[in-house]
Amino acid sequence: MPQPLSTRAPAKINLTLHVLGRREDGYHELESLVAFAGTGDDLRLEPGERLSLTVEGPTAPFAGSDADNLVLKAARLLTERVPGLRIGTFHLTKRLPVAAGIGGGSSDAAAALRLLARLNGMPPSHPALREAARLTGADVPVCLEPRARMMRGVGEKLGPVLHLPRLFAVLVNPRVPVETPAVFQSLGLKTGQSLAGASHPDIETYSADSLSRALKAARNDLEPPACTVQPIIAEALKRVAGTNGCRLARMSGSGATVFGLYDNCEVAAAAAKRIARQKPEWWVRATSLR
Ligand code: C5P
């Protein structure tokens, strides 16, 4: 029997997120600079005859039933596309908050596809992997190879891997789940409506200065509607922005997780400690991003 395989499913952070318009099918065209954190869930695949899933870890109780877990959805979509695919039991250690704007479920699904690809000797560029990722959810394709990139369309158009300077961040989730469709809906865009154009420079290698300028000139368009849906997000943003050395405080995805960026890991760790002391019930992590 082949050995179990494992991989990290890192948190996805939208450093920027611009909504460009609403399509006929209700999905929104986006432009987002995405990076990945050192912190995340862990996924192991034990090769076997049946496709199944176990979930444990601190946030497992919030992860929903097997039936709607994106790990199994992605795996099933791949088995439908690749005859004779070798499968097995997935063991997910869930640490990231759920429905939190940091792509926990999407990153888990992408990790499942990576493990199945390894087990079956499929190259990462295999079209069936891309197709299964796209059909699993809008954020899954960018998580397939978790490196910083520009993401466009509804998430399926990916730019080249970007070279970012190492970033030090604090992630803060006030432990309220946020329903992504509700946030997009409260943007109130009409079908077919387009918004003002993109504002991201086409840069592949960022210096600390050029990245800082690009981030400051950008925004997350979902922040105002998310703060309306869950006002505690505004409080989380304010607390992060108020920590020593915070260069930028912004929400990721459709929330509720917000991030702060810092110059080095010591300042980030001190900020995380301070917020965790003020708000012991919140989920707070200092981490690097790439
Ligand atoms: O694809 P996924 O199931 O992750 O998307 C969840 C919901 O978020 C969609 O049903 C849609 O309401 C909204 N969404 C959107 N535009 C995107 C991504 C998601 O409107 N680009």
Rg, rounded, reads 19 Å
Summarize model confidence as the mean pLDDT: 94
CATH architecture label of the largest domain: 2-Layer Sandwich
CATH domain topology of the largest domain: Ribosomal Protein S5, domain 2
Give start-end ranges of low-pLDDT stretches: none
Provide a quick synopsis of the model:
By secondary structure, the protein is α+β, with helices and mostly antiparallel strands. It has 9 helices and 10 strands.
Keywords:
single chain, 290 residues, alpha+beta, Ribosomal Protein S5, domain 2, Alpha-Beta Plaits, 2 domains, 6-stranded mixed beta sheet, 4-stranded antiparallel beta sheet, 10 strands, 31% helix, 28% strand, globular, binds cytidine-5'-monophosphate, transferase, nucleotide-binding, EC 2.7.1.148, 4-(cytidine 5'-diphospho)-2-C-methyl-D-erythritol kinase activity, 4-diphosphocytidyl-2-C-methyl-D-erythritol kinase
Record the SSE blueprint.
Blueprint: E1 5-22, E2 28-48, E3 52-56, H1 70-81, E4 87-93, H2 104-119, H3 127-136, H4 140-144, E5 149-153, E6 157-158, E7 167-173, H5 180-185, H6 208-217, H7 223-229, H8 232-241, E8 248-251, E9 258-262, H9 265-278, E10 283-289
Parallel strand pairs: 3-4
Antiparallel strand pairs: 1-2, 2-4, 2-5, 5-6, 7-9, 7-10, 8-9
The structure holds cytidine-5'-monophosphate (C5P).
Structure description:
- With 290 residues, the protein is an alpha+beta fold.
- It folds into 2 domains: 5-158, Ribosomal Protein S5, domain 2 (2-Layer Sandwich), CATH 3.30.230.10; 167-289, Alpha-Beta Plaits, CATH 3.30.70.890.
- Helix content is 31%, strand content 28%.
- It is built from 9 helices and 10 strands.
- It has helices at 70-81, 104-119, 127-136, 140-144, 180-185, 208-217, 223-229, 232-241, 265-278; strands at 5-22, 28-48, 52-56, 87-93, 149-153, 157-158, 167-173, 248-251, 258-262, 283-289.
- The strands form 2 sheets. Strands 1, 2, 3, 4, 5 and 6 form a 6-stranded mixed sheet that branches. Strands 8-9-7-10 form a 4-stranded antiparallel sheet.
- It is globular and about 55 Å long.
- It starts with a strand and ends with a strand.
- The model has no long low-confidence stretch (mean pLDDT 94).
- The structure holds cytidine-5'-monophosphate.
- Residues 26-28, 30, 137-139, 154-155, 180-181, 184 line the site of cytidine-5'-monophosphate.
